[in-house]
Specification:
By secondary structure, the protein is an alpha/beta fold. The protein folds into 2 domains: about 1-310, ABC transporter type 1, transmembrane domain (ABC transporter transmembrane region fold, Up-down Bundle), CATH 1.20.1560; about 335-410 and about 490-585, Rossmann fold. The chain contains 21 helices and 12 strands. The chain has helices spanning about 10-45, 50-100, 100-105, 110-135, 135-150, 155-200, 200-205, 210-235, 240-265, 270-310, 375-380, 405-410, 425-430, 440-445, 450-455, 475-485, 505-515, 530-535, 555-560, 560-570, 575-585; strands at about 335-340, 350-360, 365-370, 390-395, 395-400, 410-415, 425, 465, 490-495, 520-525, 540-545, 545-550. β4 (about 390-395) and β5 form a beta hairpin. α5 (about 135-150) runs antiparallel to α10 and α17 packs parallel to α21. Mean pLDDT is about 85; it is low at about 575-580 and about 585-588.
């Protein structure tokens, strides 16, 4: 928690004024029993109505001032807590954005969502309660005890005994419950992860009729969370009954001692009422303090979880803008020099000793079986992951020496999974280049073969896209993500199996459009279909992360058995005519 307090520095004034006004309110609360004692001992005992009215007015004034102080304190505490949570959420989101794919894979998406939402809300509530009650409650407890000693030392000894015992109980319960709250939040992570996985894969679950098994697994995790919460809740629930028993026992002893003292003439009736009021105030404040401590336990446990994410350092050494070296190679050139890459926690590398050069304007096809390392290879260019051995160079410069923003501005990438964001088609395209004009947007739509369905929509390019592109087909989503990359006009274009939902004719027209690009980018085309890469300048064949063939389509058919097997499994000799039609479509 200590490291997170830096995010409350903009609210130093509120952090001082909130507790200060609470202490003022507490001071007025401590004065009330003394005024009440005076009314009983002098006003009521002497039947002095003027005295009663005068001190009754003072009681009313104390109540109004106390109310004003309480509202002011609540305002400052809430402002500081909400502002702190907003700063912390912004800092956490910014930190997550800087993490590499390796760290995000390791931590887990569901865990990060919990940290950003539930955990920060708990910390916000904890800070709010702490600013309001952590000073007020001890001030009232010790203030009431000191004033009780001024009234009568013998009677006040009850306070001196019961307060340490209550503190022992409260802090003992706190020590037991705090680690349990951490386990509860961990169980919440699992429930969130299971929920997210089920909602994301609902179509697959229904397709394989696995609803019962998934429901059983969810119930198991949900029941474990419920049991964990009940267990820690039972321990925390002991606070109220134990404190009430102790306070009521102390009240019985106080009345017994006070009765003897009143009978002896050492105490007045008003002073006994004041002592009882002080004991009641102590009871109320200790219960408040106990609840505050329980809430603070949750907040501290959540703060530790947030801090654990904040302490994760990105494995990508990031340079600041303006610190990159001067590029020494050709613009658009990509060089892999003996590149190997191993994911965190994996024993075997995903790609091994990859060595090739992509010259500016070349089209590089990448093909191989499932899990052969195709996506891993292209993800090294924009530096989503760092190489384990060797280096990847863009424009003659190691990608690790570029500022991340500068490197990725040179690259347009279309991911394996087509992702669109809630908004209009225009807004999604402007992700590629926020300064792009209407002509550039329409050109990108035309080249990506999206223009045909965009123009049919009522609002055209300003048509609404739902979150994730739910109101579009798979092929439409893929074409729009391709258009988004083309709007950037990058020097390097990466297509990570991003035409899998397109039919052969549309795929061929798309590749024909890419050949007509005026700025001639270096293109990397990852595909499972040889038809998509057969006209590439170089085709790289991967198997188990190793390059087993580099060459043109015809060369690989002769020299690479794996490539030939992939090709002939898709195009038998009797399908030559279909292949010819596709080539004719592409030439058009």
């Amino acid at each position: 928690m200590k490291n997170l307090l830096v995010y409350i520095k903009d609210y130093k004034k509120e952090c001082v004024l909130g507790p200060l006004f609470k202490l003022l309110e507490a001071g007025f609360d401590l004065t009330v029993p003394l005024v009440t004692a005076a009314i009983i001992d002098y006003g009521i005992a002497n039947e002095d109505k003027g005295y009663i009215m005068k001190y009754g007015g003072i009681l009313l004034l104390l109540a109004l001032i106390g109310l004003a102080c309480s509202i002011t304190a609540q305002y400052f505490a809430a402002k500081a807590a909400v502002g702190f949570a907003a700063n912390l959420r912004h800092a956490l989101f910014s930190h997550i954005e800087k993490l590499s794919f390796s760290e995000i894979d390791q931590i887990g998406t569901s865990t990060l969502i919990t940290r950003m939402t539930s955990d920060i809300n708990q910390v916000q509530s904890g800070v709010n309660m702490a600013l309001r009650l952590f000073l007020r409650s001890p001030f009232i407890v010790f203030g009431a005890m000191i004033l009780a000693f001024f009234i009568d030392i013998q009677a006040a000894l009850v306070f001196a005994i019961v307060i340490p015992l209550l503190a022992l109980v409260i802090f003992g319960i706190m020590g037991i419950s705090m680690p349990l709250y951490k386990k509860v939040q961990g169980a919440l992570d699992k429930v969130l992860g299971s929920t997210r996985e089920n909602l994301t894969g609902i179509r697959v679950i229904r397709a394989f009729h696995r609803e019962a098994e998934e429901e059983e697994q969810f119930c198991r995790e949900n029941n474990f969370l419920a049991k964990s919460q009940l267990f820690v809740g039972r321990i925390a629930a002991l606070t109220n009954p134990v404190t009430y028993v102790m306070i009521n026992g102390a009240l019985v002893v106080l009345l017994w001692i006070s009765g003897i003292r009143v009978h002896a003439g050492s105490l007045t009736s008003g002073e006994v009422i004041a002592l009882i009021n002080y004991l009641s105030q102590i009871l109320v404040e200790l219960i408040k303090l106990a609840n505050t401590i329980v809430l603070s336990n949750k907040a501290l446990a959540c703060a530790a979880r947030i801090e654990s994410v904040m302490s994760v350092q990105s494995s990508l050494a990031v340079r600041e803008a303006g610190q990159s070296e001067t590029a020494v190679g050709k613009r658009g050139q990509v060089v892999f020099e003996n590149v190997s890459m191993c994911y965190q926690g994996s024993q075997e590398p995903s790609v091994t000793m990859v060595d090739f050069t992509a010259e500016p304007g070349e089209t590089i096809g990448i093909i191989g079986g499932t899990g052969s390392g195709k996506s891993t290879l292209v993800n090294l260019i924009p530096r989503f992951y760092d190489v384990t051995e060797g280096c990847v160079k863009v424009d003659g410069q190691d990608v690790r020496s570029y500022p991340i923003k500068e490197l990725r501005e040179r690259i347009g990438i279309v991911m394996q999974k087509a992702v669109l964001f809630k908004g209009t088609i225009r807004e999604n395209l402007l992700w590629g280049n926020e300064n792009a004009g209407e002509e550039e947007l329409m050109e990108a739509l035309e080249l990506s073969q999206s223009i045909e369905f965009v123009e049919k929509k009522e609002d055209g390019i300003d048509s609404f896209v739902e979150q994730g592109g739910r109101n579009l087909s798979g092929g439409q989503r893929q074409r729009l993500t391709i258009a988004r990359a083309l709007v950037r006009k990058p020097e390097i274009l990466i297509f990570d199996d991003s035409t899998s939902a397109l039919d052969y004719a549309t795929d061929a027209r798309l590749r024909g459009g890419l050949k007509r690009l005026s700025y001639r980018p270096t293109i990397f085309m990852v595909s499972q279909r040889t038809s998509s890469i057969r006209h590439a300048d170089k085709i790289i064949v991967l198997e188990d992360g190793e390059v087993i063939g580099i060459g043109t389509h015809d060369e690989l058919l002769e020299n690479c058995q794996v490539y030939a097997e992939i090709h002939y499994s898709q195009y038998q000799k009797d399908k030559g005519a279909a292949s010819g039609k596709e080539e004719e479509s592409e030439n058009r």
